[in-house]
Amino acid sequence: AAMAQRKKTPVTILTGFLGSGKTTLLNHILTAEHGKRIAVIENEYGEVGIDDALVKKVAFEEENVVEMNNGCICCTVRGDLIKSITKLLKNTRRPFDCILIETTGLADPAPVAQTFFVDEKVQELTFLDGIITVVDAKHIIQHLDDVKPDGVENEAVEQLAFADRVLLNKTDLVTPEHLDLVTARIRAINAAVQILPTTYSKIDVASVLHIKAFDLSRVLATEPTFLAPEQEHQHDTTVSSVGFQLQGEISLVKLQKLINKLMESKGVDLFRYKGILAIKGVEKVFVFQGVHMLFDSTFGEPWPVPPAERISKCCFIGRNLDRKLITEAFMACVVTEELTHPIGARVVCRLDDGWLPGVVASHWD
């Protein structure tokens, strides 16, 4: 039995509510110098995948990453999870040291963890090493206090209840007093869990991988029906995702005004929003991410294709979102008018010293 256990591949589940820092943690693990060969299974809630572009492809091969979009890993695509695991492990040329599963922020980790105990094929190949829950210290309390409809679980609570390790992230955004309050709320849900304070999801990889922390007996003590088949999991129907793709380059000025307007009018209801955009006159990919009223953006790697072939992608997840309104607002940011003078054109410019000849070097808003 011990020999069989050693041959099994450990699996770590990365969970946490929308915008907590799961993808940042995943990037940190993938870029750390640990010498491990890691496979990744990503799950996004939405019809347009963004995280595949946000995950750094460091020393990656095609067989290392599996994406599952437009469905929650804890319900509609659970069968795909089983197929993904078996495919990864049976088709690989070299064995993986571990598998990381990054769930959508709206996933209840219980049905995902259950997969490793109720499916015989998965049991033969893997064992559940631990559930790592990433917590946004600034926003977690409002999500824990969120009133759900009858029969609908609070995912933020479930993610903490099943955690073997809690990464208390974004500690730099709150006061020590607020941090103590958050810690107390976590302890009220999961008294014995190890809490690791962090910023930007930076953590010692050894504290989250190969930790042999998942304890089935502990889970059964608090959740006796954990291994019961066909458990129902209902999502809050007021929460939805709005995802879309845009052809054409985008005006940065119009985009900034739109984001500011959305944060002012819908900030409380915007759980998570992110995108990769083609900005007019800029050769680098524009990456933006936001959680409620917190927004961050940067220019990343150069686009691998010419302007005419660049596709922008956006995804918004929140409560009572108006798909038509958000999509049309972004469409209005696409640049449709050509400027009078193309790049390279010879022109005469009016400066403080008078009119001087020049050449158009670039375009911007």
Description:
This protein has 365 residues and is of the alpha/beta class. Helix content is 29%, strand content 27%. It contains twelve helices and 14 strands. It has a seven-stranded parallel sheet with strand order 3-2-4-1-5-6-7, with helices on both faces. Strands 8-12-9-10-11 form a five-stranded antiparallel sheet, covered by helices on one side. It has a two-stranded antiparallel sheet with strand order 13-14. It is elongated, with a radius of gyration of 23 Å. Residues 1-6 and 56-63 have low confidence and may be disordered.
Keyword list:
12 helices, 365 residues, 29% helix, 27% strand, disordered N terminus, 5-stranded antiparallel beta sheet, 7-stranded parallel beta sheet, elongated, alpha/beta
Topology overview:
Blueprint: H1 2-7, E1 9-15, H2 22-31, E2 38-43, H3 51-54, E3 65-68, H4 78-91, E4 98-102, H5 109-118, H6 120-125, E5 126-136, H7 140-144, H8 155-161, E6 165-169, H9 176-189, E7 194-197, H10 216-222, E8 239-247, H11 252-266, E9 270-278, E10 284-291, E11 294-302, E12 311-319, H12 323-331, E13 346-351, E14 354-359
Parallel strand pairs: 1-4, 1-5, 2-3, 2-4, 5-6, 6-7
Antiparallel strand pairs: 8-12, 9-10, 9-12, 10-11, 13-14
